[in-house]
């Protein structure tokens, strides 16, 4: 089983466990802890390369996870600590549940962790800026699953929902806000599949919107 297949946890329990783990690093006795990346590579788990990562927008939630990054590059997250153990990023995007296939509405906190990884970690090269802002904790989102892996996602701003937290402006139509397909899974029609799903989900609406600016890869 993979983390997304475990019984779900709530934001409070996840954040509390994460904070307790980080605070315990400085007082640990005994041998060093290592996380194995491959047969020839491993990363030492120390207070210097472990940090809390916030999952959602600042004004929405304080939910956080424990991340392990390479000692020489804090932008390169290699694992998260969930369910009292370290999981490599690739395994966090996997499922053993055969019924989890196609476009699935995000509901659990673990599914939102996957959206976070896809938008903030997976497609990020060394020292590169992240492609997306953090999503709100209540963001309407679907994950695309194929071959037991999460390969993409899209998010929607619903008609009538607030545009931001500091004004009273609302969206006047459903808007396709963010879309991502992992690089290794592109050119297979998944982007078009998500666009079609978005349109069919609001088939009674006369007009639909797409957030701007569009990335060069999406325009292509």
From TrEMBL:
Q: Which domain of life is it from?
A: Eukaryota
Q: Under what name is this protein listed?
A: Protein FAM169B-like isoform X1
């Amino acid at each position: 089983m993979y983390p997304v297949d475990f019984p779900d946890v709530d934001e409070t329990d996840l954040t509390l466990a994460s904070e307790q783990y980080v605070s315990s690093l400085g007082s640990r006795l005994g041998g060093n802890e290592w996380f194995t990346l491959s047969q020839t590579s491993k990363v030492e788990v120390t207070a210097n390369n472990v940090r809390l990562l916030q999952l959602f927008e600042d004004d929405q939630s304080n939910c956080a996870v424990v991340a392990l990054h390479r000692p020489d590059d804090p932008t390169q997250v290699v694992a998260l600590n969930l369910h009292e153990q370290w999981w490599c990023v690739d395994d966090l995007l996997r499922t053993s549940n055969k019924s989890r296939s196609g476009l699935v509405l995000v509901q659990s906190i673990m599914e939102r962790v996957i959206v976070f990884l896809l938008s903030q970690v997976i497609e990020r090269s060394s020292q590169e800026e992240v492609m997306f802002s953090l999503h709100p904790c209540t963001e309407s989102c679907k994950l695309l699953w194929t071959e037991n892996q999460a390969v993409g996602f899209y998010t929607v701003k619903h008609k009538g929902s607030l545009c931001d937290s500091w004004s009273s402006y609302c969206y006047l139509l459903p808007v396709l806000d963010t879309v991502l397909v992992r690089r290794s899974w592109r050119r297979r029609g998944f982007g078009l599949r998500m666009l079609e799903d978005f349109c069919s989900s609001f088939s009674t609406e006369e007009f639909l919107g797409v957030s701007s600016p569009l990335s060069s890869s999406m325009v292509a």
